[in-house]
Structures
1.
Amino acid sequence: MSDDLTRLSAAELAEKIHVREVSAVEAAQAHLDRIAAVDGDVHAFLHVGAEAALASATLVDESLAAGTAPASALAGVPLALKDVLTTTDMPTTVGSKILEGWRPPYDATVTSKLRAAGITILGKTNMDEFAMGSSTEYSAYGPTRNPWDLDRIPGGSGGGSAAALAAFEAPLAIGTDTGGSIRQPAAMTGTVGVKPTYGGVSRYGLVACASSLDQAGPCARTVLDAALLHEIIGGHDPMDSTSIDAPVPAVVEAARLGAKGDLSGVRVGVVRELTGEGYQAGVQENFDAALRELEKLGAEVVEVSAPHFQYGLAAYYLILPSEVSSNLARFDAMRYGLRVDKGASAEEVMAATREAGFGPEVKRRIILGTYALSSGYYDAYYGQAQKVRTLIGRDFAAAFAQADVLVSPTAPTTAFPIGDKVDDPLAMYLNDLATIPTNLAGTAAMSVPSGVAAEDGLPTGLQIMAPALGEAVMYRVGAAYEAARDAADGSPFASRTPEVKP
Amino acid sequence: MTAPTLVDFDDVVDRYDPTLGLEVHVELSTNTKMFCGCPTTFGAEPNTQVCPTCLGLPGSLPVVNRAAVEAAIRIGLALNCSIAPWGRFARKNYFYPDMPKNFQTSQYDEPIAVDGHLDVTLEDGTSVRVEIERAHMEEDTGKSLHVGGATGRIHGAEYSLLDYNRAGVPLIEIVTKMIPGTGARAPEVARAYVTALRDLIRSLGVSDVRMDQGSMRCDVNLSLSPKGSGILGTRSETKNVNSLRSVERAVRYEMSRHAGVLDAGEKVVQETRHFQEDTATTRSGRIKETSEDYRYFPEPDLVPIAPSAEWVEELRGTLPELPWERRARIQQEWQLSDAELRDLVNADALDLVAATVDAGAPSGDARSWWVSYLSQQANTRGVALDALPITPAQLARVIELVTTGELNNKLARQVVDGVLEGEGEPDEVVASRGLAVVSDDGALIAAVDEALAAQPDVAEKIRGGKVAAAGAIVGAVMKATKGQADAKRVRELIIERCGA
Ligand SMILES: [Zn+2]
């Protein structure tokens, strides 16, 4: 019984809990048991809050027993929270030694919304330190392993959240996406990951990597589950000035509509610059197959061009480090977090703490950003990068005039072996080639599993991109494709995940 | 370090032209901070007015306080500035323990108000126009307290305490353009400008503008150029100038110091200096080996400030009568000469007199009390006029008692003294000190008769029609009644009793 509960989708599990066929406590316990069984190998979690999870689930059960309607469509369903969002009842480390054991005095808005919705937060998931990385190898607490192959990376920075889904440790997770940190791990682990429109989900309590790029979003094993979670965490927050004051797009309705399998009238644009050369054969094959599937569903597939996307990676690696260098200045040992008491002056303590507390990738980006913002270099680096950002936004606008959604492979390769690229930052950065333009433009995108690559049996992802606040059509296309793919396979994609074997 | 050579001030202005620049920080008295909902009350227990945002906790975000933007726009309008239709905040990056995020959020190069002016009146009535470059919004830092060590400075301290209550309090920085051509009057112009700015901001009701509490702080920039050369010299920036008098003294000192450096054929160092209140001198701040690079860039956590033209006009409509408008009106209403008005302003008595008039007193009486007797009292006590423990309403009551004849001037002063001594309201002082004028005719007639009997020759003169002789009898009666008689009534009774 317990084992079955971990295989259900969030929607199925919620249904059982709400009709009181299964209790929220049983659901939580099943997942806690699963974590106990496999997380020693997967290492998706940095912290498991069993007690708080069971207490929260108990409240849901009590409320349902009293005849109260469920607090949300997902009340009682367990969730894995990326360790970048603040929680008052669990540490928040952002995968860094500099915040080891830090207990925030406040909940992130996303955390509060999850609690209010009656969702059971199981624990905090592993990530590349300060969300900088594409493999979760840059976590100060050791790498997360891909449930499809424990010797491979689960993607990053949100490798913990994605691996928790693929290992059936949770049916729902929250990720954050600065340059692909939700979508690329989704592709690597055969799960669904959504980067909402910038400003669609509050950033209050999201420990910043790059403020103008960061966006929290839902992760799940099905498109509908992601949509259900999206509607719970989305919406305007007066605590976040950059949050959009508009209704959350009706993504659940769109996902349900899409699942009916009709995409007639929908124009799907293939971004010429995001296919072909540089993409692993199996990735490209699955992408081409997905296009055929979309056509079968009635969509009109057109080719579009986004000539400035090729500069996206370079612009991203100037804007992101610049913001990082400033955002991470606050970690100075004066108020919270690690303190290395070396030296007599405040400056010496700050320097010693930052030296000991930050890992190499974080330091690399702080140095890059400090340099890019320096007087005399600002215009050539940060200034030029902002211009590229504007041009990429225009490319998107032009493309969306021709197509309702754009598609590409989510990542150029399938999951690579742990240790393969950890010493080659440039190779690591290329992972995010296809996902970065969306962050630079502030638009929305998702990754949906598109099968496994013929050559290595590892999952690949289809990226679906939509204009700002255009999530509804994106979910519709994603759900339609998912339904068609499952029908062709004869079973949900998640059921193809191999059992975790150490 | 050797003491700087100082050149006599008159000698300085004979040979050099000073150029002034003033940067004034004003802490707004909004209920909440610039980017969070914390209160801004001065003097609260350390670290009790803080939240995740103003402590810079990971994950926290700023939200602009609309009331602060409103105050900034109103200050800009009152300074005749143009209001920018669009502007971003920027981050000024540098590490300092009292700054929670290790960057300050400031408007930097996109200020909300630009290109204004403030007309300043000097003591002799000369008007000087000070051009305003910009006014921009930013957040204040916390406060450090360095404990142990001799100087109270960070160097040599045993440990430091940090109070973040002030961190994030809204500041408006008002920067003048360079002010040339003030010559020997440079110190006076600087002081008059800061005074005028203080009065202006106070009239807007957006700040306490208390230099002693740090809600108004002034940095003085000064450079000298050889007289008539027109070549701008290197400037020094003097911080920590915390009173109007210090503004004047800082300018004067820096002029003498710069001249000493230049006379010695050396170069003035472009540096930050700190004003020393006790010695009226400036000392060099720490010389940094490298010039500070603040790595400014637009604050990505905030959206641009874009005040609509309608809103700006609406705010223009809320501007109160500005100080110079008010002074012109008062001068006319009270029929004051230029000199009388200036005395009133220089004595810092205008507001007090106006409040006393508002409480019902005639302006002449109110003016004379504040400018003479009460100014003396303030001087004696060594406090500012508005710090005397008497309110305009209390003074107005004293004046009323004089007008109705219940007090004479001498008694009135005693009542005021009683109020200043904390003996209560004027009427309570009158009662407790027994200071009411003797207005009972019976008692007065007895005293008059007694005085007439004591000086029969004078009485005879009065009876013979020499009314002027009554003065001697009045004096005697006043003495007998210990000054509590109404002299006018006494004179009337004398004449009545003598049948003159
Ligand atoms: Zn606060």
2.
Amino acid sequence: MEGHAADNRKSAVHQGAEVAQFSVVGTRIRQPDGPAKATGEAKFAGDISLPGMLIGKILRSPYPHAVIKSIDTSKAEALPGVMAVLTPDNVAEWKTFDRGMKDMPLVAGGYRVPSEEAVVNKVARHYGDAIAAVAAVDEHTAEEAIELLEVEYELLPFVLDAEEAMQPDAPQVSDLAPDNVGKHLFYPYPEGDVDKALAEADLVVSGVFSTHKQDHCTQETAACVAYLDASGRLNVWSQCQLAHLGRRELASIFKMPVNRIKLMTPFVGGSFGQRGAVCAEPIAVALALRSKRPVRLVFSREDNFLGLESRTGFKKIDIKMGFTSDGTLTAIKTQMIGTLGGYMGCGPMSSVIGMTLAMGHYRCPNRFGEAHMVMTNTPVSGAMRGFGNDAMMFCIEQLMDDAARRLGIDPIDIRLKNAKEPGEIASMGLELESTYMEDCLQLGAEAFGWHEKRTQAKKDEGPIKRGYGMATMSHCTGAAPLYLEHSNAMVKFNEDGSADLTVHPAPVGQHIWGALSQICAEELGIRAEDVHIVTGDTDVTLFEYGSDASRSTYAIGGATLRAARQAKEQMLARAAEMLEVPADRLEVKDRVVVVKGRPDKTVTVAEVCYDAIYAFGGRATNFAGKQSFESTWNSPTYGAYFAEVEVNTETGRVHVPRFVTAIDCGKAINPMAVEGQLEGGLQQGLGYALTENFIVNPKTGVVETDNYDSYKVPGALDMPDSTVLIVDKPDPKGPFGAKGVGEPGMVGIPPCIANAVYDAIGVRLRDLPMTPERVLEALTEKTEGETETVRGE
Amino acid sequence: MKTVATFTVNGLPHEIAVEPHQLLIEVLREHLGLTGTKHSCGVGNCGACTVLVDGTPELACLTLAMEVRDKSVLTIEGLAKEGLLHPLQQAFVDYGAIQCGYCTPGMILTGKALLDDNPDPTEHEVREALAGNICRCTGYVKIVEAVLAAAEVMRKGGN
Ligand code: FES
Ligand code: FES
């Protein structure tokens, strides 16, 4: 296997006829960071050791709502080896911050969240809120020091449930949120008269749904190493997905110019949106500044569950959808109540993004949506893969199935009937660049055997009821025009024809270095392995918004393509001089510049680059491109999902033996990496749908799920037999036709499984997760569709 | 009270003074600088910290350093020989079985124990062997493929 990595056996790429012939793009290259990760050489934040380094630990509130009256630090400080203790009173010199970093010019016309969180907090607003921290010479001493802190709490009344929090007499969580409504937000692209359209519809399907707080469960916990060097510069190894924004947030908290901070991104053991907020950084930096020593702060698994943002749960999503009798969607009306937890973070926008993507998925002339995002004394909600689209699609795709059934239309046909076409306005309010949802449905249905399975009579399998379900989704590629979409790249040629690409995506495991090296190499006419990625240091990289919203390949790839083109043009101009032909007669492929139509007239890229660098007589130059990219458009990725389930009507357990995902993510830069995103998304989607459940004790506010024994993520034996199909037709605007693929893998899973469960047992499960208890409960009630009304019935 | 314990790590003998409560993961990571052994759940639920002790997978976050006295420990750093990746490491790279890479050392070492014991496992046997190792990135598909592919290479005597 020279150059290319192994072929995957089950999954397939279906190339469209119009796809251009590429030499590097579209190949299954190995990742440049693979060997380092396979040998244990790769350094993650928690692996970094510096001379004299201290270990940090956090004290977290055991109460959901309390004022920290006092902390007696004398015993802890007297313990040999304790070098710094942070309490709410002694961190007051540093500014409060917005962990979601949205108090910045990031959200176009959106809200601003005032800074509200301190390095450690005077008022604990949720169980596990950070209230003190220590740094000591080793972990055991740090742990002991935490135990020695004597805290006097004044307990406050607390509220855990979003709907209860909206009651007039509910305890107040934050001064910034009157009546605990942190944000009252609206669907940004309303259209028509939704109430009138619903009143006139031939069929209205509706339901009240709920979704839960899913933990990202990154295998690496939050971690940060920080130290102030002798020249007064702050050096930080940070996992932040948005490195430059993380640096800016730290500069703001600690009142430093941004270029006094060197923020470095080591390998990151998973993120999925969680490191889009600042996590371990503020406390690690504060401890380093106080102790004047390097500090390493690594969260425990429990710290991760309590102290980081996890998926925003929706207490209530009330949706009504109107249809004409031929299955044409005429109206969608949505009302959401979301649970934010003790701070606002990234949570509020999950409603806006969710409504935007899901309500704009189908053609629909009448749309309205609003959300109350409510503060509660529970751990903080934020962004996780899907960012609200998961929750909204869970509802919409179930109602779509209800409508199909009521109207006697095939579930696939009703979706095709309402699917958008290129040139229509897509979910993000911009013209739709490309959609191949029909291809997804066709490929997926065929691979799954949808039509045969749906029509054949079901075998009697005793208590096991078998069902088949499908769902579709679309998801944004980057978040233009709602969020800032600004990326930069630099490309330089070396004298041997190799190239260095300077970019700053978050290396969270999405095979982004490989994809960017492919885009760069394809444009430069060299091989992927000729491209070295220079990254992970804000001293070196240009501004980069970062890796989120499924944007890296598209936006950072877009900047890469432009920068590479610029460097290539310089190189070709020199090659034209050398070959004595005009530059437009040249093309470059596999490291060689060729005169078109004259295969004998060539010069290697290496020769041209050497000639440029080691030149006399005023001809010396280093070919280099530097380009910005800001997308003002958005090309959604489309997907179709098919599931087979077995519901055990005695135990309530839902088992998923088979799953097919078909995806239109434009041109797959590396099909193996695309498959990896979708296969991994399935694990998270499956857990979200069935087993993962963040449980807060309703009486005490204590979080009961703080590790993998109580919080069940799917293991290798729980996974379905999975097939991934890639449509592989290029988008007109993405780099070499690529669109985003980070989040789509997870968004369509829960409704697909819910639809299969309905097919199996005839019961609608409207609450996530679909636990055995809920399945049994639903079976006992079996009062399906109590809210559906058909006109004239 | 520290006791001096001798044990072999990746083929090299070590003599280290350890506290009775000290965990193997701490000795490996903090004393020997072998940070390839990963810490994730800390309580035996995820397999990230898996190392081989006399060839058997053990969770370094639950194992006391004293327990491996006079035994031989293999960590991920000891698997490649003379710069050549072990077939499992090579297959993980080739099959895209590594995303963030945090579960990788534990997965590869668990896979090695399986293949040393059962050179020709079925897909189900691979999944059973890896059932205690959580991966949050890959959905296990390519990990299982990589273990099966490595098994084939190893059966053919490849390295
Ligand atoms: S860290 Fe040892 S099993 Fe999870
Ligand atoms: S590759 Fe990230 S946890 Fe497995």
3.
Amino acid sequence: MTGQTAAAATEVVASPEEIREVKATAREVGVFYGETNALRNVNLDIRKNEVTALIGPSGCGKSTFLRCFNRMNDTIDGCRVVGGIMLDGDEILAPNVDVVHLRARVGMVFQKPNPFPKSIFDNVAYGPRIHGLASSRAELEEIVDSSLKRTGLWDEVKDRLHAPGTSLSGGQQQRLCIARAIAVQPEVILMDEPCSALDPIATARIEELIDEIRQHYTIVIVTHSMQQAARVSQQTAFFHLGDLVEKGDTEHIFTAPRDERTQSYITGRIG
Amino acid sequence: MIDMTRPEREPGAISKTVADRLKRRHAAERRFRLYGIGAIAAAMAILLTLFVTIVGSAYTAFVQTHVKLEVFFDPRKIDPEGTNSAEAIRGGDFGGIVKASLRNRFPEATGRRDKRHLYDIVSTGAAFDLRTMVLENPDLIGATRDLWLVAGDDVDMLVKGKMPRDVPETDRRLNDRQIAWVDALSADGDVEMRFNTRFFTAGDSREPELAGILGAAVGSFYTMLVTLVLAFPLGVATAVYLEEFAPKNRWTAVIEININNLAAVPSIVFGLLGLAVFLNVAGLPRSAPVVGGMVLALMTLPTIIIASRAALKAVPPSIREAALGMGASRIQTTFHHVAPLAMPGILSGTIIGMAQALGETAPLLMIGMVAFIVDIPGGPFDAATVLPVQVFLWADSPERAFTERTSAAIVVLLFFLVIMNAGAVLLRKKFERRW
Ligand SMILES: Nc1ncnc2c1ncn2[C@@H]1O[C@H](COP(=O)(O)OP(=O)(O)O)[C@@H](O)[C@H]1O
Ligand SMILES: [Mg+2]
């Protein structure tokens, strides 16, 4: 699977930069927690149907930046975001943007698997239900089935769709969360260290899944594992102490980093 | 901790110090556990003593002395006109019938004083029982039956052994002749202890043998109903708003401090507030469960709010993140996910608040729920009293027979409290957290 990703990455690198369609653009994005400036002046293009990895040492602002794309920072008291993010030409940081609608377009998978303490079916059906995506029970079942199939969970859970989602293993729970996110057909999926609570086998399974689903979605993933970034992403952005230090094709960042700090981080000297 | 910076020390010496300390640490642990067990044992012993004393003095109240007499349903006394109408029967002189039966049984009582003493053997309630019997079955008029009649409270005390016989006659509520009559009845097998149904079906009475707990229990029920209907929705809504929606600023901090302070306000102050506002300004009826319920709702609100907020706080933030991340609005997040998960905590907090309210006396005294009320209240606007106030009223009554009834009322009150607390525990168990 790693070989596959590498091949894909090479292919992308080979094509001219211009034809890679941009899905979202962050311009001069800064985030304040109260008086603390946690993120400064970030400019980054997120490309469609690609995986963008955000890497950097702990506390450098990766999650903070990721949460700007679905306005989850709004839920934190005292958090203020400046700058602009365009999603397909729509400014999403504007105060009049309906975050409920935005979050239907931009789904999120969290670090710790957090299925609702409800049945597997209800977990996946929750998004379609609240957004009114299914007009009948049959349609809802169809959405649930296809989401579970797409995440490779179907064969494992098809006989117990009414068992609680929390009864699954950690890896299965995380795939359930991904199924739950894709059930509303988002355009972008944000993933905040989705594998950090999982064992290597479950991690490999999720990485494979990310690679499969990226054809239909645009994915931004935060990871503390450089191997993971190298395996799954086409584009990488390196953050350090609230600054976006370096961005570029994954291949490029890992083989020929321009900045000294990137160099030190990927060789394991800081982090 | 082993000091790694001094390698010159022999390894054996280190492990010896560790071993010595270990012994002391284990001893300390054992000691602490003993203290704990001792504390629990002391608490249980006190609780047991309490229960044994109360139940010990209460159980005799659940039976009542009855005496068997030959009763002649004299038509001239019941229905002199012979109309056979319920109205006439209701006006019948059933007291006279009981008295006649007693005179019949003990013809030796002749003087006025003697007769009065004789009549004290049977309770005045017996006449009401006979009237009920005849109203149900008018064919009894003219018949003669052997019937078990409720004994007076002094006889009851004598038979239950709670009235000393070996004191001078003047120090007793029954004189020597009365005791002789009771002994005579007893010798003929005409004195019996029967289950005291009346205690569970009657309202209060001046006569201990006729007094029942039902009036107070129904009063408590209506009061609790009003309390629950007011305090639960208000308390939960406040908690949900403060916990899930309100911004965390100076105002919400002030509100929070005030709610916590409110929880510490002595309950009688709420009673005074109820008197001033609900009775004097709003003009609501005095002694009514509706006002009692309102006062107790004020008192219970802080408990429910604090418990509900704790329950909401205990819901992991990851659940909220998951729902918000799916595009649920804040209301949807709260009502689809957070509130259901917090419900067991909210409900058990509510039950504990209600149990507190059920046992509350002082604020109800302020709003007149301490009145002597014979009728069983038919609704929250009827004058009523409640269980703990009934305990207070009976404890305050001079008749010896009220003592055991006081204990019996406490047992009934404790019974309801135990039921409510068991309910809280069951709810917690049933909805065991599942995340
Ligand atoms: N809710 C918050 N309130 C205050 N400061 C925060 C909050 N979340 C994150 N921070 C701060 O912002 C900085 C970036 O955090 P974060 O984005 O979580 O880092 P990363 O995900 O890269 O490890 C850190 O210094 C952190 O302490
Ligand atoms: Mg993070």
